[in-house]
Amino acid sequence: MDLVRDPIPRLIRQIAVPFALGMIFNTMFNVTDTFYAGRLSTDSLAALSLSFPMFFLVLGPGMGIQTGASALISNALGAGDRRRAVQYQIQAILLAGMVTVVVSVALNIALPAMYRFFGADGEVLAGGLRYMRVIASGGLVIALAQVLNAGLVARGDTRAFRNVLIAIALLNVGLDPVLMFGVSIGDTTLIPRMQEAGTALATVLLQGVGLGYLIVRGRREGVYDGAVRSDWRPRGDLIRDLVGQSAPATLDFLIMTLGSFVINYFVSDFGRNPIAAYGASLRIEQIALLPLFGISTALSTLVGQNNGAGRLDRVDESFRTSVRISVFAAVAILTPVLLAAGSLLRLFTDTAEVVAIGRRYLYIQGITYFSYILMNLSNAVLRGLKRPIMIMWVGVYRQIAAPFAVFPFLAYVLGMRVDGVFWGLALVNWSAAAFTFWWSRRTLARVRALAPDSAIVAPAES
Hints:
By secondary structure, this protein is mainly α. The protein has 15 helices and two strands.
């Protein structure tokens, strides 16, 4: 495919559909973990729910570096500089390795205090620690599996990661229960019962399988063509470029993690059933959202390559086309999810109160649904234009500043309790989406003003 010449709607479909399909299976991977945790106990389900933001601390650096590297690689490819694209990919791998090792060590030390901050004790605390100690120890494998995908996505190849996500999701269905519940024949234990540690070990092992596949696929697709031994030494100028593009994305992911802590903090104040309901319904919400995130991934790739090629007319067309497609897709996806909300929640738990709370959450989030899509499309444009800094500041507002003002007012002052937290999410996210959309349109207009003939590429932010 030619990302700077082929018709935009066709390119969006070719990039978005494989990515969306892969992410659906990625969420099914997480749903499998949640399903079997619910079969262990409600405490285990609550433990995995509390672990979700901590898992993001491991995942965040790899995802952020992958996002920044993909933007730089796509711009380099659009400008015809394939050598620089290869160098960015290699330096991204080195940067991810260094950052992830530091994060994993620090997280292993801090985990008990983090769980206790949320009031976890007894089996919830023990289950959370069993899960996250394995995840943190395997953080390098998880991060590299993300970063190795940067060069492929920048070339419009989302099929490779789709293949990985489908394969490991299917394998997880069998591996999870084996490692969680163990295997015995008579009095002989073949595989010990690992409980929450088992599902974490399954995650790390399967990410390692995906990592191997992406290495092979990247070499076949020319991601490392022309690389020499010296490219595998850290280079200050390229690392600075990567940090400049990746830091806002990484900080946004980490801020998102803090936001998850904030939500968990307020929800957990109302008991274990609300936190279990939030964890289960969040999985369902992710399934509904991720197909549309494929469109934002396609948009970021198209914006990056066309910005690099000086085709700002196609940048604007890509943005408008992506918004139009997302509106129709959102209606098609959201309708059946809301109609089947109760049945979907009962896949995770038989506790009536958990199902009732989760159903209310999903109904309220139905109002919020398109705000997430609008924000992601707007952020994709900013990343592709190499102007991502505002993404981080909006994240601070959306995940930290506004929730601490809105959630207590609705939940405690107005007496809405846990529903106040859910309605607060709707208010905060729509205000953030409206601003981000306006800012992205303003930024694109400013870039076009600098290049009225679509011949000047927007400079990278520092």
